[in-house]
Amino acid sequence: MKYLRDFGFEPVLYLPETPHYPLTDPDLEREVPENLTVYRSQFWEPYAWARLFGRKKAGRISSGIIQRRNPGLVERLLLWARGNFFIPDARKFWVKKAVRELPGILDQEGITTLVTTGPPHSLHLIGLELSRRRPNLKWVADFRDPWTEIGYHSAMSLGKRARRKHRELETRVLGAADRVMATSQVTADSLGSHTPRPVAVITNGFDRQPARGDQPDGAFVVAHIGSLLSGRNPDALWQALATLLRDTPGFREDFRLELTGLVSEEVMESLREHGLETHTKIHAYVPHREAIIRQEKAQLLLLLEIDSPETRGIVPGKLFEYMAAARPILAIGPDGWEAADRVIGSGCGAGFRYGQMDEILAQLRQWYDLYRKGALSVRPGGVAQYHRRELTGRLAKEILWELSSDNPS
């Protein structure tokens, strides 16, 4: 959106007036271009109802923190209701009102191309209905995460009816959209099996000048920025760090683990079990500018994903912020994780599976030895392609301009 004007497109936004989000960042709001046309509408959401069962539990679920070890009855009930009644998600109540309001906006602004971005995947249902009513409207369905193959569906105890409904809606969206986008090749391949059209891969990115990559001053800080969910609990990493604390001279004095954002209780239990709690500092959520500073001051950056085949195609936006920070990235995730392949391929760090404790330990030792010598630097290659202006240029050239030339209006 920020760079679309550079490529000849004027964005118009249609947004909820007061959406429920667990976290917001005023820093990112200031990046919105000036004089942008924005339409807002008030939508009903079920989160106030969910908080009747417990504000803390409802807030944790909406933030993505799912307790995987012995979740309580209330939490299981909320997850089951979320998965089986709110299909495809809790924003399903936006659809009818949006479909009533958007035709007038499309006419008033002379809009010929609509882009829906999910999740929430309910937004794609808005595009589906508008494309049915307006055959000349060009529609791009942008998948920032998978739909039916998203990892957390397994925690929601979806019934057969719910699974069938999710698949049916996804197939209808993929069949009707003029173009489909995904943020990873794995997700694109999965979506492509349900549509005859090619699925474009346009990843997330960063929006700043990349750092130099020299070793920063200070302690041997291993940092994770963002929510650390229950499923992203790398026990092998905690074992490796505990081994270094026990066996490596100087490591106990140099090492600090910094976790910025929401941290699940399961992760905290693991840290205590491995004797890492006294070396760990937890920070509340911080604005984007401060998160960048913390990334660049860390010696190592952790990139973690749930160990599941469904998460192989999750390539988080955080990866590209890490790349721009130019600090070594330690990626731990499922076998065949695309994000880890991108880390290794760009020379930004190393990637491992959850059970590779010995390999993780060896890599940490290598990086710590370089740190002691003042030589823990990063010189990545090919990172410029992930700048958001470059990515916007690809979006304009490969999708938007093509649709504009095809559109008779």
TrEMBL record:
Superkingdom of origin: Bacteria
The protein, known as: TPR/glycosyl transferase domain protein
Organism: Robiginitalea biformata (strain ATCC BAA-864 / DSM 15991 / KCTC 12146 / HTCC2501)
